[in-house]
Amino acid sequence: MSDDATIGFYDRQTEAYRKVAEGFDNDALRRMMRDLPPGAHVLDLGCGPGQDSRLLARAGFRVTAMDASAEMVRQAGLEPGVTTRHATFADLDDAAAFDAVWASFSLLHAPKSDFPAHLAAIRRALKPGGTLVLSLKTGTGESRDRLGRFYAFYEEDELASLLAAAGFVVADTRRGRAKGMAGTEDPHVTMTAHA
Fold first, then answer.
1. Terminus-to-terminus CA distance in the chain, angstroms?
2. C-alpha separations of 180 from 19, 72, 119 in Å
3. Would the pLDDT of 63 be above 80?
4. CA of 159: how far to CAs of 21, 63, 97, 178, in Å?
5. Any bridge partners for residue 46, and if so which?
6. Portion of the chain with pLDDT greater than 70, in percent
């Protein structure tokens, strides 16, 4: 994410976002944790204030939490066992470093034109056979919400095609609806894919 308005929003609203995020029932995270080997290294890409990083670290996984918001990264770094990285999606340059990448409602802030490059970088960052769990809001196009945050929306078949083009094999697709900070209840999709 490199949109200054979106990053600024999260820098200013970290605590409010944390409260909303902690109320989100994350079955996808529990499923991913069940499937990973003990001590697996997980990249929480677009980690926010670190609520998922905390759960991963407390479950015994090695966690790298990465976000473009300096305040979000600061919050995530308060949890013992979480290594933080203040960086944008475009800064991801690791090679075969992670067993899994957890990208929960983060890449939806990247322009659609940049999305294929981000998926390619994630695939390079994963160990062979590694897991990507990706959640995005469904829909079409790009827009800003009433809070000024930039969003890119994807239909399921579009997302599956982009993952396949990046060399991923989709293993599972789940759909849902959730209410976010803007107050709207939006449809979303979570795809689990393997490198």
1. 22
2. 11, 17, 25
3. yes
4. 23, 26, 24, 19
5. none
6. 97
Which H helix or E strand runs over 31?
helix 27-35
C-alpha span between 128 and 191 (Å, rounded):
18
Q: How is residue 143 annotated by DSSP? A: E
Query: What is the arithmetic mean of pLDDT over 95-124?
Result: 97
Q: What is the pLDDT of residues 80-96, one digit of tens each?
A: 999 999 999 999 999 99
Please say whether the dihedral angle defined by the alpha carbons of residues 19, 17, 186 and 1, taken in this order, is positive or negative: negative
pTM for this one?
0.93
> Of 66, 57, 72, whose CA–CA distance to 16 is shortest?
72
Nearest-angstrom CA–CA distance, 13 and 128: 37
CB atoms within 10 A of CB 39: 9
**Residue holding tokens 């939806």?**
108
The owner of tokens 């107050």 is: 183
Rounded to 5°, the CA angle 161-154-194 comes to 45
Q: Which helix (H) or strand (E) holds 103?
A: strand 98-104
The distance from CA 62 to its chain's CA centroid, rounded to whole angstroms, is 16
How many Cβ atoms are within 10 Å of 81's Cβ, its own excluded?
Answer: 14
